[in-house]
Amino acid sequence: MKKILIFSIVLLLPILIHGQEKNSWNEKRERGDRSERMRKMEQYEQAKLIEALNLNEDTSIRFFSRRNEFHAKVKDLIDERDRMINKMEKETSASDKVKKNDLREQINLFLLQEEKILKEKNAFISSLKELLSEEQIAKFLVVENKFRHGVRDFIFKKESRETQKK
User: Fold this and answer.
1) Total number of domains constituting the chain
2) Closest C-alpha to 117, from 160, 84, 73
3) C-beta atoms surrounding 101 within 10 Å
4) Domain span at residue 91?
5) Which of 7, 22, 101, 149 has the most C-beta neighbours closer than 10 Å?
6) pLDDT in tens, 5-27
């Protein structure tokens, strides 16, 4: 338990110190430096997962390695899906007369891409059975879901405040 607490403090300390810097987040946002914020957010999420799942060092390394590999695969699939959406957007806005067969084919390809993403998620969660107990997998899904919702809510609240200021 002490290891987790120390590990959490080590990960959170730079975030807390960085948060004290005057207007640093706004400056970075204006410059478009999202990678630093993303890295800090990922570190925080990792600390939350280690704590919630009570992972030892070896399991933690294997878990995050597998998770990073999964995220890379899904990112590639999502990028391809986004390219499909962009192509559909161009074709539907470029001309008045779009071929229905072309759109039908593009929609079917899009749905296949969504299935690939879902299959990848299923494979990842199934692969966790080698590393984690059923309870840990359930906790992982809960923590990850809460974290995503928390980030989304934070972003929407921040955007709402910024639009109210204008």
Assistant:
1) 1
2) 73
3) 8
4) 59-132
5) 7
6) 454 544 444 444 444 444 454 55
